[in-house]
């Protein structure tokens, strides 16, 4: 399924620092697998599930430092590439099952939806998440949007305007490939608006997300985090392989020159906008198979926690059966 290159597992564990720097915490793979297994729709109520270790390992909490994250690590998963790909394939149908249930709930008048926000530098694997994780869900149930540099029309509105217009409706899973966070990332790095303007946006984003949550949307925010060396290798591959030329953009090298500024902008965005309602998860993404597995688990955990239920549709079943029999 995945085409990523195999690399040795060099994940470092520093358990003593696990609270302050969640991504370096020791992996507990068996628990993670057990949790994933239990996320089958209808199998168990969310409250019966054990705490999801992968979620805690990746979540941006107080004291988080992006520079402490080992992009090669695979928190919450001890196996290698083939085990990771196997786990991804095994759990793939569950995502679709949950979405169907969420959709069914909306048919009964439910208002809930899920929004996955994916941010990450060029080549960090955002597109791969769409192709390998999100693709497992019925396309009808997905509302996916890739945010590019704003169009002239979008620029005439507030930065959240286009985002509001792309939110998932009831029963849907929304996916943002880049998002309103670009307005405190690329915009901050390149001074596209004055500091006085972008510096207010963190609070505006938090208020906006609170509103989105209040309207019934669960938000899962993911940063796919690769190292500078890995990005260089991926850009080189895009240049060396004809089947990857189409992914290459000369502008990616210009952006790469601002690596440190991007890290600073991400650090600020992650810590200022990781809230209880809409936490950030930083997913080490040098290993594509791990990033895909981790995002799949984050989605499954969120859906299991939402625990959508089959709706009470109010049909008079015996009467409807009688009517059917009469045909
Ligand atoms: P890609 O995702 O590689 O197709 O590139 C999309 C480009 O759009 C990236 O270079 C983003 O930084 C840029 N972009 C997305 N949102 C914004 C924004 N709000 N302002 C400026 N550039 C943006
Ligand atoms: Mg790009």
What topology does this entry show?
Layout: H1 29-37, H2 53-58, H3 81-107, E1 113-120, H4 126-132, E2 142-146, H5 152-155, H6 161-164, E3 173-177, H7 186-189, H8 195-214, E4 217-225, H9 228-240, H10 251-256, H11 259-273, E5 280-284, H12 288-306, H13 317-325
The protein binds adenosine monophosphate and magnesium ion (MG).
Adenosine monophosphate is lined by residues 122, 147-150, 178, 182-183, 186-187, 192.
Using DSSP, what is the number of strands?
Answer: 5
Q: What's the SSE pattern?
A: HHHEHEHHEHHEHHHEHH
Bound compounds: adenosine monophosphate, magnesium ion
Number of helices: 13
- Give the N-to-C terminal Cα separation: 47 Å
Question: What's the alpha carbon Rg, rounded to whole Å?
Answer: 21 Å
CATH fold topology = Rossmann fold
Structural class: alpha/beta
> Mean pLDDT, rounded to whole units?
87
The CATH class, by name, is: Alpha Beta
Number of domains: 1
Into which percent range does the helicity of residues fall? 40-55%
CATH superfamily: P-loop containing nucleotide triphosphate hydrolases
Q: What is the strand arrangement across the widest sheet?
A: 2-3-1-4-5
Please indicate the percent range of residues in DSSP E strands (runs of 2 or more).
5-15%
What shape does the CA trace take? globular
């Amino acid at each position: 399924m995945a085409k990523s290159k195999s690399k040795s597992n060099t994940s470092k564990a520093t358990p003593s620092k696990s609270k302050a720097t969640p991504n370096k915490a020791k992996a507990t793979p068996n628990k993670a697998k057990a949790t994933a297994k239990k996320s089958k729709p209808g199998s168990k109520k969310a409250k019966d599930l054990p705490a999801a270790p992968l979620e805690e390992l990746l979540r941006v909490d107080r004291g988080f430092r992006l520079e402490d994250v080992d992009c090669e690590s695979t928190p919450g998963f001890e196996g290698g590439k083939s085990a990771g790909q196997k786990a991804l394939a095994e759990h793939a149908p569950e995502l679709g099952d949950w979405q169907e249930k969420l959709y069914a709930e909306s048919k009964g008048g439910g208002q809930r939806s899920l929004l996955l926000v994916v941010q990450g530098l060029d080549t960090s694997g955002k597109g791969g998440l769409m192709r390998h994780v999100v693709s497992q869900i019925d396309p009808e149930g997905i509302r996916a949007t890739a945010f590019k540099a704003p169009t002239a029309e979008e620029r005439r509105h507030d930065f959240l305007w286009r985002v509001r217009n792309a939110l998932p409706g009831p029963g849907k899973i929304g996916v943002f490939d880049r998002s309103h966070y670009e307005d405190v990332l690329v915009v901050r790095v390149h001074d596209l608006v004055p500091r006085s303007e972008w510096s207010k946006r963190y609070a505006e984003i938090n208020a906006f997300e609170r509103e989105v949550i209040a309207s019934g949307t669960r938000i899962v925010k993911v940063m796919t985090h690769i190292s500078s060396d890995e990005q260089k290798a991926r850009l080189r591959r895009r240049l060396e392989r004809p089947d990857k030329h189409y992914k290459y953009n000369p502008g990616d090298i210009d952006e790469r020159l601002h690596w440190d500024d991007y890290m600073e902008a991400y650090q600020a965005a992650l810590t200022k906008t990781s809230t209880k309602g809409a936490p950030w998860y930083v997913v080490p993404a040098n290993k594509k198979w791990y990033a895909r597995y981790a995002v799949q688990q984050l989605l499954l955990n969120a859906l299991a926690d939402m625990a959508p239920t089959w709706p009470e549709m109010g049909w008079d079943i015996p009467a409807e059966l009688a009517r059917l029999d009469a045909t």
